[in-house]
Design a protein that fits this description.
By secondary structure, this protein is of the alpha/beta class. The protein has 3 domains: 1-58 and 433-453, Glutamate Dehydrogenase, Chain A, domain 3; 61-192, Leucine Dehydrogenase, chain A, domain 1 (Rossmann fold, 3-Layer(aba) Sandwich), CATH 3.40.50.10860; 211-372, 3-Layer(aba) Sandwich (Rossmann fold). The protein is built from 17 helices and 12 strands. The protein has helices at 9-19, 24-41, 45-49, 52-56, 105-121, 142-156, 175-189, 209-226, 244-255, 278-291, 298-301, 332-340, 356-365, 372-375, 377-392, 398-420, 431-450; strands at residues 61-70, 76-87, 93-99, 127-133, 165-168, 236-240, 259-265, 268-271, 306-309, 320-323, 345-347, 368-370. The strands form 2 sheets. It has a 7-stranded mixed sheet with strand order 9-8-7-6-10-11-12, with helices on both faces. Strands 1-2-4-3-5 form a 5-stranded mixed sheet. A hairpin with a 5-residue loop joins strand 1 (61-70) and strand 2 (76-87). It starts with 8 loop residues before the first helix and ends with a helix. It binds NADPH dihydro-nicotinamide-adenine-dinucleotide phosphate (NDP) and (2Z)-2-iminopentanedioic acid. (2Z)-2-iminopentanedioic acid is lined by residues 94-96, 115, 118, 168, 170, 197, 351, 379-380, 383.
Length: 453
């Protein structure tokens, strides 16, 4: 069979849709990658013959399980837990756990698929996985969170391990949840190992992991701007989200002399035309992460700001945009607003925050646009470094880790340029294509080496 005889992109996608009915987020993620990969492998018989993309788009396995826990009123509650182990060709499965009521198998499959390419781009030996539950942490007491996390790990522990699958945090899973899950894993197995990353510093965590995703997304932005002789200093930035990724992206933009105009959450967005400095960012971190209260109260504390309920921040004119909340939070209209108002660069802190139509707007406009699998890889990269430190039973210094993060983000940027330079219609770098192809090549070549498994 020659290359010409193999299925084309649309036949391939028809198969993906048939095998994954109703899994819209997963199908969206596979399409976005496949468009670029099909182009790249057009004349490369070995990838077709070995069905590499078909195999990457079929998770190695999906574990789904019941999670029972008791709330503070004595009610028995039942949630569904998952771990999607997508691909371990280049290292143990690695990727976060998400606790959010919107979690479905489709969402975790899309995240595990994306994670496979992202982890490949970091240059570290990590495969792709993702997990979580439809558990809603909002409004739960600390004891309820602990009981849920313990129950979740009581099943998950069979499927993970420091050389098998190493989960971490994601939406709704931060240091507190990682602590409860690590404690339960250790209790059940009687082993102290690096089975999770994002751990507390007292028990094997790594410096810089907390900041790494947000900081990394800003370093990627900085690298893109430098290709145009530009910098972050003096530029205005619109950020969505107000969690781990968003607040650390805001912090780094501020440190580099940029002006942060917005943050947001699921209820609306905050606009502060004066810009958010460290004091304001610390207030947001505390309000969302410790008080777990309303973002709108910011306007009572910091004069001149406004709260815009039910809206997304893309309508605010800016030079730079960092979507750092969740998937498909920006559509065609949001992307058009940004471009129309003069935005020159977009760096995704979230996973797949811009839908396919929105991505087309950026590509057509030819602005600097970094897909999450490249620009938010700093978090999992420092997770990889946490794994290395755990294996060696050592801890690296803050300076070492900050330097590693910067270097890894620069290397990812340069790899995207290597595969994406000149590929946009206006001759600019197509960072999406660059990330998709570079992420694919390493995983694909490892799979070729293994034969048919
Ligand atoms: P957090 O739980 O810390 O914060 C999530 C933020 O996103 C909150 O502001 C939340 O608002 C908002 N949000 C969540 N769901 C929605 C929704 N459906 N609509 C609008 N806003 C929403 O999560 P992270 O900051 O860790 O994660 C944010 C994104 O970054 C996710 O896409 C995640 O996959 C990605 N990511 C995270 C990494 C990490 O290291 N943590 C690494 C790489 C990517 P509210 O409080 O109202 O719910
Ligand atoms: O989407 C992601 O890359 C993460 N949530 C971080 C995963 C990790 O293993 O650190």
């Amino acid at each position: 069979m020659s290359v010409a005889d193999h299925v084309d992109l649309e036949q391939f996608m028809a198969g993906v849709e048939k095998r994954n009915p109703g899994e819209t987020e997963f199908i969206q993620a596979v399409r976005e990658v496949s468009e670029d990969v099909f182009e790249y492998i057009a004349d490369k018989e070995q990838y077709h013959h070995h069905q590499i993309l078909r195999r990457i788009a079929e998770p190695d396995r999906i574990v789904s399980f019941r999670v029972c826990w008791e709330d503070d009123n004595g009610n028995i509650r039942v949630q569904r837990g998952y771990r999607v182990q997508n691909n371990n060709a280049i290292g143990p499965y690695k990727g976060g756990l998400r606790f959010h009521p919107s979690v479905t198998q489709s969402i975790l499959k899309f995240l595990a698929f994306e994670q496979t390419f992202k982890n490949s781009l970091t240059g570290l030996p990590m495969g792709g996985g993702k997990g979580g539950s439809n558990f809603n942490p909002k409004g739960k007491s600390d004891n309820e969170i602990m009981r849920f996390c313990q129950s979740f790990m009581t099943e998950l522990y069979r499927h993970v391990g420091e050389d098998t699958d190493v989960p971490a945090g994601d939406i709704g899973v931060g240091a507190r949840e990682i602590g409860y899950m690590f404690g339960q894993y250790k209790r059940i197995t009687n082993r102290f190992t690096g089975v999770l990353t994002g751990k507390g510093l007292e028990y094997g965590g790594s410096l810089v992991r907390t900041e790494a995703t947000g900081y990394g997304a800003v370093y990627f932005l900085q690298n893109m701007l430098e290709t145009k002789g530009e910098s972050i200093s003096g530029k205005s930035a619109v950020i969505s989200g107000s969690g781990n990724v968003a607040t650390h992206a805001a912090e780094k933009i501020h440190q580099l002399g940029g002006k942060v105009l917005t943050v947001s959450d699921s209820k609306g967005y905050l606009h502060d035309p004066a810009g958010m400095d460290q004091e304001k960012i610390d207030w947001i971190k505390r309000q969302k992460g410790v008080v777990r209260g309303s973002l709108a109260e910011y306007t009572d504390v910091f004069a001149g700001s406004s709260w815009n309920p039910g809206k997304t921040p893309w309508e605010v004119a800016c030079d730079l945009a960092l979507p750092c909340a969740t998937q498909n939070e920006m559509d065609k209209t949001g992307a058009e607003l940004l471009v129309g108002n003069g935005c020159i660069a977009v760096s995704e802190g979230a996973n797949m925050p811009v839908n396919l139509e929105g991505v087309k707007v950026f590509k057509t406009a030819g602005i600097l646009y970094a897909p999450g699998k490249a620009s938010n890889a700093g978090g999992v990269a420092v997770s990889g470094l946490e794994m290395s430190q755990n294996s060696g039973r050592i801890s690296w210094s803050e300076d070492q880790l900050q330097e590693h993060l910067k270097t890894i983000m620069k290397d990812i940027h340069d790899t995207c340029v290597e595969y994406g330079a000149g590929r946009l219609p206006n001759g600019e770098c197509d960072y999406v294509k660059g990330a998709n192809i570079a992420g694919f090549v390493k995983v694909a070549n490892a799979m070729l080496a293994f034969g048919v498994v």
